[in-house]
Amino acid sequence: MPDEKSLRARHPGFYVKDANIDRHTCQRVVPMEVLNILSVQRTHCEYCLTLFTAIKAALQILGYDECYHMINTHRNIRDFDMWMEAVAAKYDGKGKFGRAEFDKLLGHCMAVTDAPCNLFAPELIDAYPDAKVILMERDIEAWYKSFGIIMDNTFVPVPRIVAFLDPLWTGRRAKFFRAWMEKQFGAKTAEEVREVAREIYRAHYAEIRRITPKERLLEYELGSGWEPLCKFLGKPVPDVPFPRVNEAAALREKIVMARRKGIRRAVQNVAGGLFICVVVAFGLYYAWIHI
Asked: pTM of the prediction?
């Protein structure tokens, strides 16, 4: 694994200081035009991340800026606060999360792709009736094989310990992904998720095809190039190759960086807590012996 300096050079966006924006105070500033509602999430799957990031890059080349993607949450971790409100509204009937709320959370974006947006595909399709919808489907068995990776990050103990020690960053991410598994899949263990995964996968695609008018929907196969995408969106074909970004090695690096960041923050929190305890203990001891 490359050292930290080389990682920073190759992935500078990952090291951007957190914007610390409360999206509740925001509003829509650009129109929402494209909903790239892909498959049920395969968090940290190399194929999945390559697919998501390639389409994100393609949409931005075509002028849809910004395109919301999971990486956006790394730049503003407080986004997960509103995504949790969206989960509560959708699955628990607590509050409401419609066009007004999406405009606050996604108001700076002209397009969306990847998680967390694909969990709310029906709500986004309804909220933005003028937006075009892009759907890409992978062979279900190939998807199922890669899907197990999400279990390693959701149900195993170590990430949960890191989340406990780093509640403001890792904790926010972990809380959302665990809620996602429990609500969408109705499961509390990896085994329970696997039992219903294929059913949920099929239902996701069936629902999007059922609720989306045909004139708004493009079923796009990655590898088809610019032509079908540009024809559907009414854009001229760019004079550049279709993006091929975040290949396997780069994706593994980003996964490692996210884990390193969580562990580093957890260690800093523990060290800070121990320092405060030592200072307090010393203060109490000093006060005691001088009574």
From this structure: 0.82
